[in-house]
């Protein structure tokens, strides 16, 4: 985590790293540099450094625009943007989960960005309806199961995990993580609060142990035989599989005959008080295209949000699936309802 003191504008300039930009903008960026226009922007990112620095380095190589950045949790970064207001040096916010992106927009931290490039490369369901943020990679939150104790034909839907068949066999991550809040938010959108509360109570009744702090510890419990099934983000499974290709677990794509697999995004938006909005938009547009899309997704074993960009080979090996077609912004719009519902259901 990279945290700087409140007085840090000059320090950020000294931290200039690199980045990436689209080929169509390369000449214009260099001409701006020659004309003395700003050639450095500031990014606040809740994605870890190793997932963004290679992108920033490439952007700088191609455009001459340098990128200084701060990495931290999404909560602290949004609080910082809110406190700094018009004094903020940040031009772009990158964060994970549509729930967080929606919250940043709802707090007035992001501005609308009109861009034909973004509209052409990012499907509407993966962007804000007011163009304040845009998804840049997709992750599925799906079912993971023990290949030693579960047959895939036993599995079907998220809702089915609430039935007696999974009593004493289910593990879940804490409800405090936004990933599970977003999943429940989409269930509310599909089923309404009453039915969703029944589902979540069923999950809680079927838990074999207390909830886990993260997806990795949940999957370690499955491997150890503590539980048989769980719900995780796909890239966490990918990391474990990359370390041990023979790991006795597999992913299952639920709800293929109904709503589809719950998917979410990591994404970005130009900050409300950006000092260099044109350059921030240029970076955002580049991240939505070609090589940058492959890198943005591939570095974290996610799916490119741009449907024209090939999927990483390991990710592709998990097979194709039908994704939920709801606009992911519902994860934020119903987040407060989801949190209250999970609390009522005893999901901690």
TrEMBL record:
Record Gene3D superfamilies: Periplasmic binding protein-like II
Residues binding Fe cation: 235-236
Family in the record: Belongs to the bacterial solute-binding protein 1 family.
InterPro entries tied to this protein: Ferric-bd, SBP
Cleaved signal peptide residues: 1-16
Keywords: Iron, Metal-binding, Signal
The organism's place on the tree of life at top rank: Bacteria
Name the UniProt record assigns to this protein: Fe(3+) ABC transporter substrate-binding protein
PANTHER family on file: IRON-UTILIZATION PERIPLASMIC PROTEIN (PTHR30006:SF15), THIAMINE-BINDING PERIPLASMIC PROTEIN-RELATED (PTHR30006)
GO molecular function: metal ion binding
Organism: Ketobacter alkanivorans
GO annotation, cellular component aspect: outer membrane-bounded periplasmic space
């Amino acid at each position: 985590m990279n945290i700087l003191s409140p007085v840090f504008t000059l320090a950020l300039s000294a931290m200039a790293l690199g980045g990436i930009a689209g080929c169509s903008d390369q000449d214009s960026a260099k001409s701006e540099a020659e004309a003395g226009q700003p050639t450095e922007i500031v990014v606040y990112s809740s994605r870890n450094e190793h997932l963004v620095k290679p992108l920033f380095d490439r952007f700088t190589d191609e455009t001459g625009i340098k990128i200084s950045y701060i990495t931290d949790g999404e909560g602290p970064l949004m609080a910082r943007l809110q406190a700094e207001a018009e004094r903020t040096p940040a031009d772009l916010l990158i964060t994970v989960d549509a729930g967080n992106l929606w919250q940043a927009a709802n707090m007035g931290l992001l501005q609308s960005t009109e861009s034909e490039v973004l509209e052409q490369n990012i499907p509407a369901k993966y962007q804000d309806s007011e163009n304040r943020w845009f998804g840049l990679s997709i992750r599925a939150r799906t079912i993971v199961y023990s290949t030693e104790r579960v047959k895939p034909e036993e599995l079907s839907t998220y809702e089915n995990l609430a039935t007696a068949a999974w009593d004493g066999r289910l593990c879940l991550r804490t409800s405090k993580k936004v990933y599970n809040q977003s999943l429940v938010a989409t269930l509310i959108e599909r089923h309404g609060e009453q039915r969703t509360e029944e589902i979540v109570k069923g999950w809680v009744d079927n838990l074999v142990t207390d909830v886990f702090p993260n997806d990795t510890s949940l999957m370690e419990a499955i491997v150890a035989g503590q539980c048989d099934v769980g719900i995780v983000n796909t890239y966490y499974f990918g990391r474990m599989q990359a370390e041990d290709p023979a790991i006795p677990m597999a992913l299952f794509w639920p709800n293929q005959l109904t709503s589809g697999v719950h998917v979410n995004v990591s994404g970005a938006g130009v900050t409300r008080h950006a000092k260099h909005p044109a350059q921030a938009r240029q970076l955002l547009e580049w991240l939505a295209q070609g090589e940058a899309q492959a890198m943005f997704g591939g570095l974290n074993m996610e799916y490119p949000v741009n449907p024209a960009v090939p999927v990483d080979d390991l990710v592709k090996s998990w097979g194709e699936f039908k994704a939920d077609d709801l606009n992911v912004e519902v994860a934020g719009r119903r987040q407060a309802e989801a949190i209250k519902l999970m609390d009522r259901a005893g999901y901690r």
